[in-house]
Design goal:
With 160 residues, the protein is an alpha/beta fold. The chain has a single domain, classed as Rossmann fold (3-Layer(aba) Sandwich), CATH 3.40.50. It has 6 helices and 5 strands. A 5-stranded parallel sheet has the order 3-2-1-4-5, sandwiched between helices. It is globular, with a radius of gyration of 15 Å.
Length: 160
């Protein structure tokens, strides 16, 4: 049986922490779908199409990784994709508490979907999309936090 996993997120922007989890998940699962959530309530810096394109560029060389934008309930999207596993990144205890609630809700909505929590590599534990945007917005160097094409896209957004 081939195992299909979904790694969902807003990815606004995609960070090296996200990329690390996708690369590691691609070694574990037969297929990994990076599911880019529309999530307009978060007022993303990048449009859904831009975030999908940035993620696609980041994972071009990994044959079992695909990138798809989506809106609506993640549990339904996972069922539509015939995914069995939901991957969630957990950096700290506070992340775990929130992710545990989400995993429980997703299990109620889609009992066939199991959640797996992955921790980032130690060098990426403090990176968040929110922090990356703030550092870049104020002219700081984000080159060690995001792929180079994402850094360029951030600079263009902030007109740096």
């Amino acid at each position: 049986m081939k195992i299909k996993a979904i790694y969902p997120g807003t990815f606004d922007p995609l960070t090296n922490g996200h990329a690390d989890l996708v690369q590691r998940a691609a070694r574990i699962f037969d297929q990994v779908i990076v599911a880019v959530a529309a999530n307009p309530s978060k007022q993303p810096l990048f449009s859904l199409d831009e975030r999908v394109a940035l993620a696609q560029q980041a994972f071009t060389g990994i044959s079992n990784v695909s990138v798809i934008g989506f809106s609506g309930l993640l549990a339904k999207f996972a069922a539509d994709q015939s995914a069995q596993v939901l991957i969630r990144g957990v950096r700290a205890v506070a992340d775990f508490e929130y992710e545990f609630q989400l995993a429980s809700m997703n299990r109620q909505l889609n009992p066939a979907l199991d959640s797996i929590f992955m921790t980032p590599s130690e060098k990426n534990t403090f990176i968040s999309s929110t922090l990356v945007k703030e550092v870049c917005r104020h002219g700081g160097d984000v080159s060690s936090f995001v792929p180079c094409h994402v850094e360029q896209a951030l600079k263009a957004k902030f007109k740096l």
